[in-house]
Amino acid sequence: MGPQDGARPAFGVGFWGSLAAGAVLEEVQLAERLGYDAVWIGDSQLLWREAYVLLGAAAALTSRVRLGISVTNPVTRHPTVTASAALTLQEASKGRAVLGVGVGSTAVRTLGQQPVSRAALARWVALLRALWSGKPVAADGSAWRLTFGTAASAPPIVVAGRGPKMLRLAGEIGDGAILTGCGRANAMARGMLESVQAGRAAATDPARPFRTYLSIAAAVHPDRRLALDAVRPQVAVALLMPHWPLSGPAEQARERLRASYDYYQHMSRQARYAELIPNEIVPSFALAGTPDECVAQLRELITLGFDEVTLIPYATEDASRADMVAALARDVVQRL
User: Fold this and answer.
1) What fold does the segment set 10-335 form as a domain?
2) Cβ–Cβ contacts within 10 Å for residue 124, how many?
């Protein structure tokens, strides 16, 4: 499914648009200069700057990195809008676009709505591909046609998930799968990959090109405490809706989080709920610690055969997010 055991995967970096647009675009250019293979921009319209605007600008400001949206959804993005936006990005970037999709998280929940079902996501993905063909598509009692649609240049669709059913769907309908919420090469990580494999076996074209992505919150610092503190907000997200058995301490932290979680503070370093997460469980859901600890943890993870590891940089209290992007490249990725 990915590189052979122990082989070095590609490395991407993911940015939330919590910073001003200019700052995010400077980070994108920095990532390319540092040698990262891909840049991903989050999609949550009330929390972050508009993803497609940032990606379009990134296409003009870079020449090499793949450009992905991580991840969009069928609730806030009409299929015709997504089909047009993704194909335009593919054209503007000269074939570097990647469309990450999911059932919906904060983009949906901050509107007071619910994620879609897996079946609805599958129909939406099929509709996107049909629109990219350029042929008329029957939908909602009408016929839609993307006038510049061309399946030959359509971007890959990669499906994000945590639980076994969602990851099986990713294997079945996607051109790739994004695994989230995993920080160790443990039973949970292997179970995730097995679910993807089961989906691929059930796909209509199991031999098609397919990539597996591990998306993981990351912070490295000589002071271990600063690194752990930086990623606690992401660990909170992983704990909130677990799809795999949790350890005793993790289950206790989850119960405390459920009583206080605020989606408007989603992944924010200022979120008070991050204080509820003990140090011992952080490495199970994020890459964090001293340089030596992070290198050892990542070496263990990549033995599972991921095609790409996407690092989501979290700034420590004494530095910027751009500083973290550079530190992860220097102190972790380049040491592998």
Assistant:
1) TIM Barrel (3.20.20)
2) 20
